[in-house]
Please model this.
Amino acid sequence: MAEDLYVSGGTKAERYVALFPQVESLLHSETDEVANLANVAAALKETFGFFWVGFYRVSGDELVLGPFQGPVACTRIHKGRGVCGTAWQEARTLVVPDVDAFPGHIACSSLSRSEIVVPLTDDAGKVWGVLDVDSNELNAFDEVDARFLEDMGRLLRRSTDKKE
Ligand code: SME
Model:
């Protein structure tokens, strides 16, 4: 099966809408978590050209770097630390228009200017990881990204062993 993505033009929301069923189809027949996280990171990077797209997974009281696309990144983040650790602790999506204005932001790259972090939850509502997307531009993310990236998180729950 060809694995090319077909998303072109349109608004950001239209591109998410075009991408979503293609990601759904990519994940449909695969249950391996790393394979699916890797493809979601690649699909988002390829479609939107984000500076950094990747996953951190919960391991004990830390998040550990998982599949990602972009420059090398910090490998471990404590619960409650940085944007990722805060999104985990509070179990809610955080949109950060200016990373320098977020107390405790962890600068894996000095080029990152804004960020969105979406917690990934299992059926019981427990956070098992986060999806982190960084931009090298200020104010790159809004509620459109939040809505669609949260939907991607639900797709991942269904397509991995976090499913019902
Ligand atoms: N900036 C994140 C750390 C991860 S990197 O952006 C890839 C944070 O503050 O949690």
